[in-house]
Hints:
alpha/beta, globular
Amino acid sequence: xxxxxxxxxxxxxxxxxxxxxxxxxxxxxxxxxxxxxxxxxxxxxxxxxxxxxxxxxxxxxxxxxxxxxxxxxxxxxxxxxxxxxxxxxxxxxxxxxxxxxxxxxxxxxxxxxxxxxxxxxxxxxxxxxxxxxxxxxxxxxxxxxxxxxxxxxxxxxxxxxxxxxxxxxxxxxxxxxxxxxxxxxxxxxxxxxxxxxxxxxxxxxxxxxxxxxxxxxxxxxxxxxxxxxxxxxxxxxxxxxxxxxxxxxxxxxxxxxxxxxxxxxxxxxxxxxxxxxxxxxxxxxx
Length: 286
């Protein structure tokens, strides 16, 4: 069983164990891997601000119809996974537990700030759409202006693949100031990406360009939060992340990665104070 199939099968069994009714991608057709209601796929009801963030994003996560469930109803939805991990903290005054679990801050040091979803960071005015970053944490204090988090669940292990960068990204030299190695990498995956099989490097480069334009080089931290898989797929995915990390770090980009499993393991230390939340995450994703 490949990694993609294993993750989806595990999620289907989780839903069956909880008595959650499932439908196909076309409701009555397709594999039954979608919940009948959005709330069935979430730990808690969507925070109103989170719902607004999703509605303003370009992903159409909440848009469904009589013949087709919304994307966020997929058991393997990376958006649902990100929300299940981060939306819980949106009403909390101290974010240090979740930021420390992500490796973004030191454990035990209080951190106040704001959590946002599907935030847009334009790269250039010539593009009609801007890259949407899954989760952004804006700390009130500290040396970083933002923690930007790109969340991945099954995407790296699917057969869809991913493309490279468009020529237009190279028409404005100001976009690449202090990004010599990153620009060279971007040229290597121009139009198509024959090098990275699991990591969507072009998407991460777009995020770097957008974040640089918004905050400036070295003032933000970009986290790649991914779901690990057993066997060769997980090994190769991790190897590609390290290669990307080494290259962009040489340009001063503050790039970091961690897995959902590692994050959840850190959260288990706080089970006493957040028992329902930790139990949900461990039962479903650990």
